[in-house]
Amino acid sequence: MLTTRQGIRPLGPADLDAFLALVITDPVVNVFADYRARTTGLEPRWLGGEMWGRYAGGALVAACHVGANLVPICATDEDARAFGERALTRGRTVSTIVGPDDAVRSFWNTVAGSWGRPRDVRWGQPHLQLDGDPVVEGDPLVRRTNRADLAEVYPACVAMYTEEVGVSPEHGGGAELYRARVLQLMSRGWSFASFDESGRLVFKAEVACASPYAAQIQGVYVVPDMRGRGLATTGMAAVARIVRREIAPVVSLYVNDWNVPARRAYERVGFVESARFSTIMF
């Protein structure tokens, strides 16, 4: 088996079975990696980047997704540092580093001196999961969205992204690509929302990625003038129930540690903390 420095080499379609066997050791935390592998077959042209694998004794022991997002997968401190050393040989091409807290910290400590000052760093984000029914009733008005809802859904997605990330997804001419992403989620049945009597969107959430084992929620948003009324709790209960019934048996997400209202809403639904993530944005 041809490997490079530190026992790392790019993975390809021939490595798919070994990769899936690796991520299934923690299928909820690794749902993004699992989803990317199953939808691309680890074919670089579909990955839009590379998937690095680290080997020990001929076995795949850790991996790292290197695309727009860099995501360490099943990486120990040593693995993450090794991936960081490899990353230093090519310079920063990613916009975000995200994943389990310990691995992200080890990777970042390796590359920080060369990759420049990040725009934002969010350590210790609680990773939450729900593997049973929600413990509160869901909002019966929550439903899947479709193209006819785009005039309401798209601005809410832009507002949520801007509020969460600190920059609009339309910045730098990104509106067309972002709109295509919103429509893609709709077409998959992964976009959910509730609307008031006038047809105005008041709550939304999407499934970001899914595997046979788990689905990860993103983009949870309540319009500002409707906050504090429990819409996030009942909305997420409804979404979680649909997702568990029709997409995957476990629902997961991660949230900023400082976002106390959101954390309380998820706790009321029945989500429990299972790990800590961290995110570094450039």
UniProtKB/TrEMBL annotation:
Q: Name one Pfam family in it.
A: Acetyltransf_1
> Where does the record place the N-acetyltransferase domain?
140-282
What the entry lists under Gene3D superfamilies is as follows:
3.40.630.30
InterPro entries (UniProt xref): Acyl_CoA_acyltransferase, DUF4081, GNAT_dom, UCP21603_acetyltransf
Tell me a Gene Ontology molecular-function term this record carries.
acyltransferase activity, transferring groups other than amino-acyl groups
Protein name (database record): N-acetyltransferase domain-containing protein
Record organism: Nocardioides terrae
